[in-house]
């Protein structure tokens, strides 16, 4: 069931540094997309670095068991690596280290994996939490650009930034927009405006701003987004066309 998500994200295509932004609109939980991508990387034996300020590795592992994969085994095999940004922040505070050191450590982690693998994919889960840790909007935006620049040294990797998007005058909204301008694919996850439903979990909108540079779309003036309803299950997600439920 997770294959439909990875197909929408175009992970199977040989795109040079496929940049993907997942936006959680007004507090909607879009972590299922991250879990689907982790599952894809494990099945494909594709090296992945998970940088998270949002969920623990135990959380990803427990979700993965329901999706029939074992994250800990993949970590032991060196295919998946995990950087706990929250735990590293606490250590940083206790040692009175410079806050910039954490950002440098993440970039070093990427380069370390690249020495062992031709391709290193990256997920940053909860990038907007860096604003809560008193990093400025400029610092976070520059950090994301540096991640993309270093990722490009690999062979056709993907980079996913998972962020929150709330009020228009909020710094989170500004960061989400800045990242969207860097992205080839933008995924927006939103709750149902009508409230909770037993048949549908929410709305999923997928935009492909990067496609406007492709030869097949160069004469297309208005790129139409793909809109779905989605239903979450323990083992994945199902996409539905609007109006079918």
TrEMBL record:
Pathway of action: tRNA modification; 5-methoxycarbonylmethyl-2-thiouridine-tRNA biosynthesis
CDD domains listed in its UniProt record: Elp6
One cellular component term from this protein's GO annotations in UniProt: elongator holoenzyme complex
Gene3D superfamilies, alphabetized: P-loop containing nucleotide triphosphate hydrolases
Database matches in InterPro entries: ELP6 (IPR018627), P-loop_NTPase (IPR027417)
Domain of life: Eukaryota
Pfam families: ELP6 (PF09807)
GO biological process: tRNA wobble uridine modification
Family the entry assigns: Belongs to the ELP6 family.
Protein name: Elongator complex protein 6
Species: Bombyx mori (Silk moth)
Lineage: Eukaryota, Metazoa, Ecdysozoa, Arthropoda, Hexapoda
């Amino acid at each position: 069931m997770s294959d439909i998500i990875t197909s929408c994200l175009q992970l199977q295509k040989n795109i040079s540094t496929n940049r993907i932004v997942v936006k959680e609109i007004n507090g909607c939980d879009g972590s299922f997309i991250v879990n689907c991508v982790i599952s894809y990387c494990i099945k494909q034996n594709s090296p992945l670095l998970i940088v998270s300020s949002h969920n623990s590795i135990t959380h990803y592992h427990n979700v993965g068991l329901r999706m029939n994969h074992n994250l800990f085994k993949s970590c032991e095999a060196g295919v998946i690596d995990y950087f706990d940004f929250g735990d590293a922040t606490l250590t940083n505070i206790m040692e009175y280290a410079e806050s910039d050191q954490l950002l440098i450590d993440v970039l070093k982690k990427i380069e370390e994996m690249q020495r062992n693998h031709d391709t290193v994919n990256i997920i940053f889960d909860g990038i907007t939490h860096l604003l809560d840790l008193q990093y400025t909007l400029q610092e976070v935006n520059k950090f994301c650009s540096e991640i993309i620049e270093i990722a490009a040294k690999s062979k056709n990797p993907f980079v996913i930034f998972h962020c929150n998007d709330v009020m228009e005058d909020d710094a989170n909204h500004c960061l989400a927009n800045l990242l969207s301008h860097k992205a080839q694919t933008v995924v927006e996850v939103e709750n149902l405006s009508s409230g909770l439903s037993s048949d549908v979990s929410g709305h999923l909108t997928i935009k492909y701003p990067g496609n406007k540079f492709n030869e097949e779309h160069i004469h297309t003036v208005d790129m139409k987004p793909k809109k779905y309803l989605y239903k979450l299950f323990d083992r994945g997600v199902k996409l539905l066309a609007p109006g079918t439920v």
